[in-house]
Amino acid sequence: MKSEITSTEVIRNTSWPAPLAYTLLLLVYVSTFRILATLPLEFLHQAVSTVAIVGLTLFYVSSLFLKLRKNHLTRLDLLVWSFILINFFAAFQARNVFGQPYYFGIMAQRSVLLSLSGMLLISMLQQRWITLLQIERAFVWISVILLIVFFYFFLFVNPVKFGDAEFVAYSPIRGYRYRFQFALVIMLLFYSLFKFSEKRRPLYLVLIIAILFYLIYFLQSRTTLAVLLITLSIYFYRNFSLREKIKKTIIYGSLVFLAVAIFFSLGMTSLFEKYQVLYNNVVTVFFGESPDEASSAVRFMELNVALDHIYKHPLLGNGFVSSQWNGGWHEILGYFYPVDIGLLGNVFVFGILGTVLIYLPFYYSLSWSRNIHTQDVFYKTCEYMLLFFFLSMFFSAVNIRDSSSILFLVCLLYYYRYHFTDAGQITIKHHE
After folding, report:
1. Nearest 5 degrees, angle CA 265-CA 266-CA 269?
2. Which end of the chain has fewer CB atoms surrounding its CB within 10 Å, N or C?
């Protein structure tokens, strides 16, 4: 049995005034997507995160107590808590393998509790304190403001002045560049693409061009661009007929070819040469050879280090080491970050068993999404952003730093499937 959404949410009066609802949603997005983590606002980030972690923990402990009294635990409860416990288990495994005190491991993983923000929103939606429309609008405005901030830094603030700050990276090929938390910007790209496909408004086209320019010219992340291309290709395959695919391929393929030809005719080939070197090094690593580029060479080295330790602890992993304990990974294994090596990084930290469990939210999200057929743009945005995270985890273990963002989207999909479609807010068509 499948359900098809044929209309959008009916705007309802909520118990909370709009300013209060949007203020809370702002705090939820800022903390859940760690927006301040890679901006020069470290103190504010720590303050907001700490308040959010404490508040979410108190909320969910009390909520869980009531659910246990009513014997009303849901599959989502079990899924979220298993996801959190897997991350906390990594702290204990680091004690067994490397001797790191439990305290450091738990504190290093404390941000995983931000995953409870999705549960908070579900509770508030059920109480009708906020609406999905408000969640959608808050996402759009925060994402647009964030994109403007990113452009401001890239255009007017020299990254060299920040030295060794976490949000600035350097490589001989790409030079100095900012590394901001851009997950919401990727979501805005999906949202704008789906909106433009639906309404053809010029504003969404401007956003699409601006985000693509930011990703290609400023960010220059080969993993992000590769995963984005795969995600959009899946969307293209799933949502268009053969005739539409051929038509759109000819139109957009011609535009891309024309743009590339113009750049080459003007002699602006340096960007293409950069990407040629970057992707050539990826191919070199894939075939087991040592690449010329520094960052690719480092990943090649990290790969070999990880394989040695995975062989020693394949099932339960090696745990997660805090940078606050004796210099972190640098002092133990040299230059090594599990997040750099994707799926193997997850196996290194969580083991084979833990990695399988970490992928369970994606499995259940796929199951839920198969039961919903809708043209709702925000729903599709959440669905394909989750797919983007899933594919990214094969190349970069983004779940280690973005676990709260992933669970936030999982919770929204769960609400669409089990509450939104059954609440009488939309028209449902049933068919076998």
Report:
1. 85
2. C
Bridge partners, 2 (sequence order): 431
pLDDT tens-digit series, residues 167-187: 777 766 667 777 788 899 999
Which residue bears the tokens 């053809």?
Answer: 200
Mind listing the pLDDT tens digit for each residue in 62-83?
888 887 777 777 888 888 888 8
Question: Does the pLDDT of residue 381 top 60, yes or no?
Answer: yes
pTM for the structure as a whole: 0.86
pLDDT at 153 over 70: yes
Closest to 38 (Cα-Cα) out of 157, 174, 145, 150: 150
Residues with Cβ within 8 Å of 69's Cβ and at least 6 positions away in sequence, in order, are none
Separation of alpha carbons 223 and 342, rounded Å: 10
Residue 207 has pLDDT above 70, yes or no: yes
DSSP string, 86-143: HHHHHHHHHHHHH---HHHHHHHTGGGGGGGHHHHHHHHHHTTSS-HHHHHHHHHHHH
Whether residue 64 contacts residue 123, with contact meaning beta carbons closer than 8 Å, is answered with no
Closest-CA residue to 406 (of 357, 365, 349, 355): 365
- Please tell me the predicted confidence (pLDDT) of residue 301: 80
DSSP 8-class letter at 375: -
Secondary structure letter of residue 159 according to DSSP:
G
Residue 171: phi and psi, rounded to 5, are: -145, 150
Three-point CA angle 118, 124, 127, nearest 5°: 145
C-alpha distance from residue 319 to each of 101, 347, 376, 392, 419 (Å): 12, 10, 40, 21, 37
